[in-house]
Amino acid sequence: MEDFSGLKLLEAICLSKNKIKKMSVFPAVLPRLERLDISYNKLEIVNMSHFNSFPNLETINLARNRIIEISSDPVELPNLTEFDVSFNRLNEISFEHWNTSSVKQVRIAVNRLTTAHGFPKVFPALQQVSLVSNPFNCDWLDTTQDELKSRNVEIQESSMVTCDKSVTLLEDFKQIIKELQSQVELLKPSSNQNGPTPSGAGNQMQFERQIWRMEQKLESFDKMSSSIARILLGGVNRKNVN
Asked: What are the alphabetically sorted keywords of the record (predicted)?
C-alpha cells in the first residue's frame, strides 16, 4: 500500500482496478478519510481492523476481488454507512465484533456463504442488503429474511435469494450423528463397573457399527456436496469475478 502519511486532509482513496494482492496495515491515521475503494483487485485475505485507522470512514468497497477470508477482529467504524464485499469467494463471514451502528447498506452477494454471523443484528440502521447467489443454509436464510422484513429492510432481487437445501440436510445429518454418538457413550460401562452384560455389550457393538457406517456415509456425502458446491460456485465466479 502507498504511504499516505502526508495527506491528513485526504477524504477519498481509490485503488480500484490494480493488481493488489495483499493489504498491509495502513501507515497513517487519516482522520478525514470517508471513502475507500479497493475493488477489482486480487486480494485474498482482508483484516478489517486495519480500517480502524480511519475513524470517519463511511464507505468500503471490496467488491470483485478474490477474497476467501475476512478476519473476525474487532472493527471500530461508527460512521461506516456502506460495505460491499460482493463478487468474491467467501465461505464465511462474521460481523459479530463490528461496532458499525451507522451501516445502511451491506452487499455480500455472489460469494459462497452459508451464513453470515451477527447479521443483521449488528446493523440497527440497515436499510438495504444484497444477498443473491450464495448457497445459504435454509433455516438461517428464513430467519434472516423474516427479521429484515420486520425491520422494513430492502432485499435487492429478493426473488432470486435462495437457499441450498443440501447444506441444511447435511447439518441435520451431522446432528443425527452426534445424537447417536451420545447414545453410544451412555451405553459404555462406567469406570466403577466390571463391564457390560453380554447383551449390553452386543447392543453397544451394534450401535458402534451403526455409528461407523453412518460416519462413513457422512464423510462421503460431505465430500460430494463440497465438490458439487465448488463446481457450481466456481462457474458462477468465473462468470462474475475478473
From this structure: Leucine-rich repeat, Repeat
- Predicted TM-score (pTM) of the model is 0.70
Distance CA 138, CA 99 (A): 27
Exposed/middle/buried for residue 216 (C-beta within 10 Å: 0-12, 13-18, 19+): exposed
Residue 67's Cβ-side half-sphere holds a number of Cα atoms within 13 Å equal to: 30
From first to last of its 242 residues, the chain has per-residue pLDDT tens of 555 666 778 899 999 999 999 887 665 678 899 999 999 999 999 999 999 989 999 999 999 999 999 998 999 999 999 999 999 999 999 999 999 999 999 999 999 999 999 999 999 999 999 999 999 999 999 999 999 999 999 999 999 999 987 655 556 666 666 666 666 566 555 555 555 555 555 666 776 676 676 666 666 666 665 565 555 555 544 444 44
Kindly report whether the peptide bond that precedes residue 55 is cis, defined as omega within 30 degrees of 0. no
